[in-house]
Protein backbone atom coordinates (compact mmCIF):
# COMPACT_ATOMS: atom_id res chain seq x y z
CA UNK A 1 0.00 0.00 0.00
CA UNK A 2 1.31 3.41 -0.89
CA UNK A 3 2.45 5.60 2.00
CA UNK A 4 1.11 8.75 0.34
CA UNK A 5 -2.39 8.74 -1.12
CA UNK A 6 -2.40 11.09 -4.11
CA UNK A 7 -5.01 11.92 -6.72
CA UNK A 8 -3.87 13.23 -10.08
CA UNK A 9 -6.68 15.17 -11.78
CA UNK A 10 -4.68 16.23 -14.83
CA UNK A 11 -5.75 15.12 -18.29
CA UNK A 12 -2.55 15.24 -20.35
CA UNK A 13 -4.27 14.19 -23.58
CA UNK A 14 -7.07 16.75 -23.25
CA UNK A 15 -5.78 19.72 -21.27
CA UNK A 16 -3.69 22.28 -23.07
CA UNK A 17 -0.09 22.69 -21.96
CA UNK A 18 0.73 25.53 -19.59
CA UNK A 19 2.51 28.59 -20.87
CA UNK A 20 6.06 29.17 -19.69
CA UNK A 21 5.03 32.09 -17.48
CA UNK A 22 2.19 30.10 -15.88
CA UNK A 23 4.47 27.12 -15.28
CA UNK A 24 7.12 29.36 -13.68
CA UNK A 25 4.47 30.98 -11.47
CA UNK A 26 3.16 27.57 -10.38
CA UNK A 27 6.69 26.36 -9.61
CA UNK A 28 7.31 29.51 -7.56
CA UNK A 29 4.10 29.00 -5.57
CA UNK A 30 4.99 25.35 -4.89
CA UNK A 31 8.50 26.32 -3.83
CA UNK A 32 7.06 28.89 -1.42
CA UNK A 33 4.87 26.23 0.23
CA UNK A 34 7.72 23.75 0.78
CA UNK A 35 9.80 23.86 3.97
CA UNK A 36 13.41 24.94 3.66
CA UNK A 37 14.68 21.47 4.63
CA UNK A 38 12.53 19.42 2.23
CA UNK A 39 15.57 18.28 0.24
CA UNK A 40 17.50 17.03 3.30
CA UNK A 41 14.74 15.55 5.48
CA UNK A 42 12.65 12.50 4.72
CA UNK A 43 8.87 12.48 4.49
CA UNK A 44 7.17 12.12 7.90
CA UNK A 45 5.25 9.10 6.62
CA UNK A 46 8.50 7.18 6.13
CA UNK A 47 9.83 5.13 9.07
CA UNK A 48 13.20 6.15 10.51
CA UNK A 49 16.26 4.54 8.99
CA UNK A 50 17.87 1.77 11.06
CA UNK A 51 21.10 2.62 12.80
CA UNK A 52 24.08 0.88 11.15
CA UNK A 53 26.10 -1.54 13.26
CA UNK A 54 29.49 -1.98 11.59
CA UNK A 55 32.35 -4.01 12.96
CA UNK A 56 35.43 -2.24 14.26
CA UNK A 57 37.40 -3.04 11.10
CA UNK A 58 34.66 -1.65 8.86
CA UNK A 59 34.46 1.52 10.96
CA UNK A 60 38.23 1.98 10.70
CA UNK A 61 38.08 1.56 6.92
CA UNK A 62 35.21 4.04 6.64
CA UNK A 63 37.15 6.56 8.71
CA UNK A 64 40.22 6.01 6.52
CA UNK A 65 38.20 6.63 3.35
CA UNK A 66 36.54 9.68 4.86
CA UNK A 67 39.98 11.08 5.77
CA UNK A 68 41.40 10.22 2.29
CA UNK A 69 44.29 8.32 3.86
CA UNK A 70 46.30 5.75 1.86
CA UNK A 71 45.68 2.06 2.38
CA UNK A 72 48.13 0.51 4.80
CA UNK A 73 48.71 -3.06 5.92
CA UNK A 74 46.92 -5.75 3.96
CA UNK A 75 48.57 -8.99 2.87
CA UNK A 76 52.32 -9.14 3.26
CA UNK A 77 53.59 -10.46 -0.07
CA UNK A 78 57.23 -10.35 1.01
CA UNK A 79 56.95 -13.96 2.18
CA UNK A 80 56.36 -15.05 -1.41
CA UNK A 81 59.38 -13.26 -2.85
CA UNK A 82 62.70 -14.90 -3.68
CA UNK A 83 65.20 -14.68 -0.82
CA UNK A 84 68.94 -14.21 -0.89
CA UNK A 85 70.97 -16.55 1.34
CA UNK A 86 72.54 -14.89 4.37
CA UNK A 87 76.34 -14.41 4.34
CA UNK A 88 78.15 -17.34 5.86
CA UNK A 89 81.52 -19.05 6.13
CA UNK A 90 82.69 -22.56 7.14
CA UNK A 91 82.80 -21.67 10.86
CA UNK A 92 79.85 -19.30 11.05
CA UNK A 93 77.52 -21.95 12.50
CA UNK A 94 79.83 -22.41 15.47
CA UNK A 95 81.05 -18.85 15.96
CA UNK A 96 77.90 -16.95 14.99
CA UNK A 97 74.61 -18.56 16.07
CA UNK A 98 72.62 -15.65 14.59
CA UNK A 99 73.75 -16.76 11.10
CA UNK A 100 72.33 -20.23 11.76
CA UNK A 101 69.07 -18.63 12.90
CA UNK A 102 69.02 -16.48 9.75
CA UNK A 103 69.48 -19.59 7.61
CA UNK A 104 66.60 -21.30 9.37
CA UNK A 105 64.35 -18.25 8.86
CA UNK A 106 65.38 -18.11 5.19
CA UNK A 107 64.62 -21.80 4.71
CA UNK A 108 61.24 -21.40 6.41
CA UNK A 109 60.29 -18.46 4.20
CA UNK A 110 61.62 -20.28 1.12
CA UNK A 111 59.41 -23.25 1.94
CA UNK A 112 56.43 -20.90 2.24
CA UNK A 113 57.21 -19.36 -1.15
CA UNK A 114 57.68 -22.82 -2.68
CA UNK A 115 54.31 -23.97 -1.31
CA UNK A 116 52.69 -20.84 -2.68
CA UNK A 117 54.15 -21.39 -6.13
CA UNK A 118 53.14 -25.05 -6.07
CA UNK A 119 49.56 -24.05 -5.23
CA UNK A 120 49.56 -21.52 -8.04
CA UNK A 121 50.76 -24.15 -10.49
CA UNK A 122 47.96 -26.50 -9.41
CA UNK A 123 45.41 -23.72 -9.82
CA UNK A 124 46.76 -22.89 -13.28
CA UNK A 125 46.58 -26.55 -14.26
CA UNK A 126 42.98 -26.76 -13.06
CA UNK A 127 42.18 -23.55 -14.92
CA UNK A 128 43.77 -24.93 -18.07
CA UNK A 129 41.74 -28.12 -17.81
CA UNK A 130 38.35 -26.87 -16.61
CA UNK A 131 38.46 -23.09 -16.98
CA UNK A 132 37.27 -22.94 -20.57
CA UNK A 133 34.18 -25.07 -19.93
CA UNK A 134 33.39 -23.21 -16.71
CA UNK A 135 33.71 -19.89 -18.56
CA UNK A 136 31.40 -21.09 -21.34
CA UNK A 137 28.85 -22.41 -18.84
CA UNK A 138 28.97 -19.15 -16.92
CA UNK A 139 28.47 -17.15 -20.12
CA UNK A 140 25.51 -19.36 -21.08
CA UNK A 141 23.92 -18.79 -17.68
CA UNK A 142 24.44 -15.04 -17.96
CA UNK A 143 22.92 -15.07 -21.46
CA UNK A 144 19.86 -16.91 -20.10
CA UNK A 145 19.51 -14.31 -17.34
CA UNK A 146 19.92 -11.51 -19.88
CA UNK A 147 17.27 -12.99 -22.17
CA UNK A 148 14.88 -13.29 -19.24
CA UNK A 149 15.47 -9.69 -18.18
CA UNK A 150 15.07 -8.43 -21.77
CA UNK A 151 11.83 -10.40 -22.13
CA UNK A 152 10.52 -8.93 -18.89
CA UNK A 153 11.53 -5.46 -20.07
CA UNK A 154 9.67 -5.92 -23.38
CA UNK A 155 6.56 -7.17 -21.56
CA UNK A 156 6.68 -4.25 -19.13
CA UNK A 157 7.02 -1.76 -21.97
CA UNK A 158 4.11 -3.37 -23.79
CA UNK A 159 1.99 -3.17 -20.65
CA UNK A 160 2.99 0.47 -20.18
CA UNK A 161 2.13 1.29 -23.79
CA UNK A 162 -1.22 -0.49 -23.43
CA UNK A 163 -2.05 1.48 -20.27
CA UNK A 164 -1.11 4.74 -22.01
CA UNK A 165 -3.24 3.83 -25.05
CA UNK A 166 -6.24 2.98 -22.89
CA UNK A 167 -5.84 6.17 -20.88
CA UNK A 168 -5.50 8.26 -24.04
CA UNK A 169 -8.54 6.58 -25.61
CA UNK A 170 -10.62 7.16 -22.48
CA UNK A 171 -9.64 10.83 -22.31
CA UNK A 172 -10.12 11.44 -26.04
CA UNK A 173 -13.53 9.72 -26.00
CA UNK A 174 -14.60 11.84 -23.05
CA UNK A 175 -13.13 15.06 -24.46
CA UNK A 176 -16.39 16.17 -26.13
CA UNK A 177 -18.42 15.51 -23.02
CA UNK A 178 -15.83 17.28 -20.86
CA UNK A 179 -15.82 20.31 -23.12
CA UNK A 180 -19.65 20.41 -23.11
CA UNK A 181 -19.72 20.12 -19.33
CA UNK A 182 -17.08 22.83 -19.04
CA UNK A 183 -19.06 25.13 -21.31
CA UNK A 184 -22.25 24.42 -19.36
CA UNK A 185 -20.44 25.13 -16.11
CA UNK A 186 -19.08 28.41 -17.45
CA UNK A 187 -22.54 29.42 -18.67
CA UNK A 188 -24.01 28.51 -15.29
CA UNK A 189 -21.37 30.53 -13.47
CA UNK A 190 -22.04 33.46 -15.82
CA UNK A 191 -25.76 33.27 -15.17
CA UNK A 192 -25.15 33.14 -11.42
CA UNK A 193 -22.98 36.24 -11.66
CA UNK A 194 -25.59 37.99 -13.81
CA UNK A 195 -28.27 37.06 -11.27
CA UNK A 196 -26.16 38.36 -8.40
CA UNK A 197 -25.49 41.60 -10.28
CA UNK A 198 -29.23 42.02 -11.04
CA UNK A 199 -30.13 41.22 -7.44
CA UNK A 200 -27.61 43.79 -6.19
CA UNK A 201 -28.99 46.39 -8.62
CA UNK A 202 -32.54 45.60 -7.47
CA UNK A 203 -31.49 45.88 -3.83
CA UNK A 204 -29.94 49.27 -4.45
CA UNK A 205 -33.04 50.35 -6.39
CA UNK A 206 -35.25 49.33 -3.48
CA UNK A 207 -33.04 51.19 -1.02
CA UNK A 208 -33.15 54.25 -3.24
CA UNK A 209 -36.95 54.08 -3.45
CA UNK A 210 -37.18 53.76 0.33
CA UNK A 211 -34.96 56.80 0.77
CA UNK A 212 -37.12 58.80 -1.65
CA UNK A 213 -40.33 57.76 0.15
CA UNK A 214 -38.78 58.60 3.49
CA UNK A 215 -37.70 62.03 2.27
CA UNK A 216 -41.20 62.70 0.80
CA UNK A 217 -42.87 61.77 4.07
CA UNK A 218 -40.71 64.20 6.06
CA UNK A 219 -41.59 67.20 3.88
Tell me what you see in this structure.
Helix content is 68%, strand content 0%. The protein has 219 residues and is mainly α. The longest helix has 77 residues, at 97-173. The chain is elongated and about 155 Å long. The mean pLDDT is 85.
Number of strands: 0
Annotation field: number of helices:
5
Mean pLDDT: 85
Shape verdict: elongated
**What is the CA-based Rg, rounded?**
43 Å
Indicate the structural class. Answer: mainly alpha
Roughly how much helix do the residues carry, as a percent range?
55-70%
What's the order of the H and E elements? HHHHH
Distance between the termini: 79 Å
| Biggest pleated-sheet summary | none
Low-confidence parts: none
Strand composition percent: under 5%
Notable characteristics:
single chain; 219 residues; mainly alpha; 5 helices
Topology, please?
Blueprint: H1 20-33, H2 56-66, H3 92-95, H4 97-173, H5 175-218
Summarize the model shown.
With 219 residues, the protein is mostly helical.
Amino acid sequence: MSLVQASHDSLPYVDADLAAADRALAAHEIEAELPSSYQTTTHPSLPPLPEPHFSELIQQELQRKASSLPLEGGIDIARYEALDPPPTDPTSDEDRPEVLAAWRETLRRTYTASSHLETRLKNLALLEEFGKNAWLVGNAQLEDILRGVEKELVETREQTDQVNKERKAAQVNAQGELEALTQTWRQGVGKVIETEVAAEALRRDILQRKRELAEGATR
